[in-house]
Amino acid sequence: MVTSIHQLDDGAWVSVNDSREVNVSDLWLLARSDVCSCEPSDFLAEGFVEVSAACGRVEGRIAGQCIACGESGVTGWLELGRADPDTGEFRPVVPASAHVPDRRRRLSRPSASAEPCQ
Fold it and tell me: What does pTM read for this prediction?
């Protein structure tokens, strides 16, 4: 099953399979980020900049600011949830749990081939 991903209302919502699933205004706990040097960072989501779906993973880059130091910016790719490839059912992540932007790109060694679905 194909997963349909869209940004709605000027980046205020992420729609998964034509259902509003993830909204801004959540506080995301980032274990590390390129926005600031706070570790961990309490990052206030203000808008979705980019969204993507691959192998059932729904990911996004989020504009916002660290509430501790006030730095603003855009996160690396964060997993927003997973869509079941057979049913399309979406299971969001918990923003308050610890997240590592770009975790696969930063912690794995570079590969010449595309990452297979797991």
Answer: 0.79
